[in-house]
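Quick one before lunch.
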Amino acid sequence: MTRNVLAVFKDDAEVAVEAIDIAFDFLRQAIVERGRACVALAGGSTPERMHKLMASQAYKDSIDWPAVRFFMGDERFVPADDPRSNFGMIRRTIFETGANVSPDNLFPIATDTKTANDAALAYEETLHRELPGGRFDVIFLGLGEDGHTASLFPGFPSLDEADRWVVASPPGRLPPSVERVTLTYPVLNAARNVMFLTAGEKKKTALALARDPATDFHQIPAAGVQPTDGRLLWLVDRAAAGE
Ligand code: 6PG
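Model of the 6-phosphogluconic acid complex:
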């Protein structure tokens, strides 16, 4: 399979369906090869649509759910029950709605620590312990209008992190204006498959820049996601693709 793909679909609903079909193939393959699959989930509106669908009856028996472990790509440093929490959204859309997922297979970023940096350090330990070989089978990512992805924001020091897998970040330019905890390039780029889900006309410029090899990732952080030995898939709707 080609390692860097842009696939354009009619709208965000179609993006969500295709994303699940493709991701589940990757996850099934991981389960066959390694006995389990590790996936990192994203916040944002396009991933949210996919999560809802993933938990629907249609997908109930389409994967060996107990073999799938769920992690987070980033989190807002807010209490777990805050409406802005990414994991809160994921819990409401996937785990409380019928998917057969055991709490043992959920690895949210705990935000009950004193500082966001403490939360980042604790999550890094979790990944070192629970993520075989430091490689996710699938990482879902969204794209911000300013080119950010996960909570890697333009011009921030987190973009030059070469060792840590998880860092704290000050708020970005786009809301919500809260501190973040985010995976960094070293672990994002070690993934077997990275899947960006992007929809809407307002993402058009950021998407074009993120896919342009001449773009500086300090300006458009999504451009720095280039798996070294994995696939990069952009699943976008026609509006984001500028069609
Ligand atoms: C977050 C996300 C963030 C998001 C993008 C795209 O915490 O908000 O993890 O990286 O995925 O901002 O979000 P939308 O799809 O809502 O535009």
